[in-house]
Amino acid sequence: MGRWKQVRWAEAGQITAILGWPKSDHDADPPEIFFDRLIEEGRVDDAALFLGQALPRFEAVAWAARTVQDLSPTSGVQDAEALKATLLWLQEPSDARRRAASEIAEHSRGASPQRMCALAVFYSGGSITSTDVEPVLPPKDVAGAFASGAVLTAAAESGRRAEGLRSALTLGDALASGREAARP
Asked: How open is the CA angle 70-56-134, to the nearest 5 degrees?
């Protein structure tokens, strides 16, 4: 077993296929080796996208929320409520809290990192339809896409993009390896 004990994927190609990336000579590499290569090559945005899909959904949301807390000041009541809903779900990942995060995100405007965190919560599992109709599960890649989008946006808006993204990737690596706990 490699360094990323929390990651269920055995080969990087399983993750790059989710992202729709072209096949490469490194698809059979363990995910953490592929991730390290992306960073070494200066492809830090790609490393964040890769990590968003590599992490289990709960850990992906925790990674996004902690990064957003560290890098992105809330710019209004809606952003604060969206981040609060995300953190409450991380404390108790119930369907009621997942749906509450969706409600707040639905009433928010724009693509704030806080809103993306709340959307990552909603798409992390459970039906995306109302409770009175047949359940429909979310596509498997959406929670990770919103989580990595929140991380990339928070880093970009922080005024210290390179440093913020480097810190976020270090945190994500620690979550993937189990060196850092996902629960708040």
From this structure: 110
- Six token digits for residue 103: 């409600």
pLDDT tens by residue, 88-128: 999 999 999 999 999 999 988 788 999 999 999 999 999 99
What tens digit of pLDDT does each residue of 13-32 get?
999 999 999 999 999 999 99
CA angle 168, 172, 31 (to 5 degrees): 130
Cα–chain center distance at 161: 17
CA torsion sign, 53 to 58 to 59 to 65?
Answer: positive
Structure tokens at 110: 């724009």
Which DSSP helix (H) or strand (E) runs through 47? Answer: helix 44-54
User: Phi and psi dihedrals of 68, rounded to 5?
Assistant: -65, -40
Q: Are 101 and 82 in contact (CB under 8 A)?
A: yes
At CB < 8 A and 24+ separation, what contacts does 96-100 make?
97/121, 98/122, 98/124, 98/125, 98/126, 99/131
Sign of CA pseudo-dihedral 50, 15, 119, 63: negative
The amino acid present at 19, given as its one-letter code, is L
Token code pair at residue 78: 């809606």
